[in-house]
Design goal:
Layout lengths: L1 H13 E8 L15 H15 L3 E7 L4 H15 L12 E3 L4 E2 L4 E7 L3 E8 L2 E7 L7 E9 L7 H19 L6 E9 L7 H4 L10 E2 H4 L10 E2 L13 E2 L2 E6 L6 E5 L17 E7 H4 L11 H15 L26 H4 L5 H7 L1
Parallel strand pairs: 1-2, 8-9
Antiparallel strand pairs: 1-15, 2-5, 3-5, 4-5, 6-7, 7-8, 9-13, 10-13, 11-12, 14-15
């Protein structure tokens, strides 16, 4: 177990890890108890991110009302909680990518770790694209990360295909400015796709760049297949019961994820029927050695981080392996004011009392 934990911790430097999640406006489930508000649901979501510690997270359906306030709370609250699992003195801070877009429902945004350099961010249709600089010494490397919220409903498959084509066209055109750079695409989000659309979506490039479905590349794990499961998740009362893989992560070139699993697919503690959203999110971890041929293991790790890693390896083996999974802590906030991982009172250090009251 200790070796597996150490390997997972090392992946924070050697993998590009993302979470994509349609947060459904942070609206509480129809099954939520009285007094459980959107701000509580948002803090529950922040706990999921805190447990995952991704390089970046892509969100869809952020609230259209007071989006800036919610975004600020998300990245500041997550930043305040994201400490290194092996050594709490190592902190993970996050920032929001400047570009954002309003889709057919809510806003689409990207958040990245504060040490990540974003060269540019643009809006293409209902998608945000961030060009991330992963260069090292003389090796130029870029990640094109997209957060997408494509058109809904079964009959709009061709529209979704066209929306994704626009994203790929923009990336391919941008790549022409630096043809000697190593590049990797990670296109994530609520694609609203049906199974029959997968083959055509992989071929949207007009230049022959075939997209790879990360779930398929991960070996098609059955437990991580459906991001919509209204048979189990009764978020909407009296909702038609069905399962679907609406949410996807596509890459180019094909990269086998080191880890791939759902996020938010566990109910709220002590509530078997209350979930954070009507969608489940996805966590995926991509080895940088597969993304970029020139990447060397631990090349981005600072001397201080190397020293801390070495001194904390023993403590890491004593940790619980389940803490690395993106599942809710047992000490999440509850409306009755129980001891919590994140409470409204604690958030007063991040926001004014007035701002908190406006969110609630």
């Amino acid at each position: 177990m200790g070796e597996r934990l150490s390997e997972a911790l090392e992946s924070k430097h050697n993998d590009f890890e993302i979470v994509t999640f349609n947060v459904s406006g942070f609206d509480p489930s129809d099954k939520a108890e009285t007094g459980f508000e959107a701000v509580h649901n948002m803090m529950w979501f922040c706990t999921l991110i805190r447990n995952a510690l991704p390089t970046a997270f892509c969100l869809q359906e952020l609230p259209t009302s007071r989006t800036c306030a919610y975004s600020r709370v998300v990245y500041e609250t997550v930043s305040g909680l994201c400490s290194d699992l092996a050594n709490p003195k190592l902190r993970y801070k996050y920032k929001e990518v400047l570009a954002e877009v309003r889709s057919h429902c809510g806003f689409v945004k990207i958040f990245v770790r504060s040490d990540i350099k974003v060269l540019k961010s643009v809006v293409v249709g209902p998608c945000v694209i961030a060009k991330i600089d992963m260069s090292h010494e003389k090796n130029k490397r870029y990640v094109y990360l997209a957060s997408a919220h494509l058109a809904p409903h079964k009959e709009y498959a061709s529209k979704r295909n066209e929306q994704m084509k626009q994203v790929v066209d923009w990336i391919e055109q941008d790549q022409e400015s630096e043809p000697d750079a190593e590049t990797c695409w990670i296109l994530a989000g609520d694609m609203n796709m049906r199974g029959a659309e997968t083959a055509s979506m992989k071929k949207v490039s007009s230049r022959g760049s075939k997209l790879s479905d990360a779930w398929e590349a991960a070996g098609k794990p059955h437990e991580s297949r459906f991001t919509w499961d209204s048979k189990r998740n009764k978020y909407h009362q009296n909702c038609f019961e069905f399962t679907c893989r609406f949410d996807r992560i596509f890459t180019f070139p094909q990269i086998k994820p080191r880890r791939f699993h759902l996020v938010g697919d566990e109910p709220y503690p002590d509530r078997d029927d209350q979930y954070v959203s009507d969608h489940f999110g996805i966590f995926a971890s991509f080895p940088k050695t597969d993304m970029f041929p020139s990447f060397k293991i631990n090349e981005h790790m600072t001397e201080e981080e190397r020293r801390v890693r070495a001194s904390s390896s023993v403590r890491a083996t004593q940790s619980d392996e389940t803490s690395l999974k993106s599942k809710p802590d047992v000490t999440l906030i509850k409306p009755d004011g129980d001891v919590t991982l994140m409470s409204v009172k604690e958030m007063e250090t991040l926001m004014s009392e007035k701002e908190i009251e406006e969110l609630i």
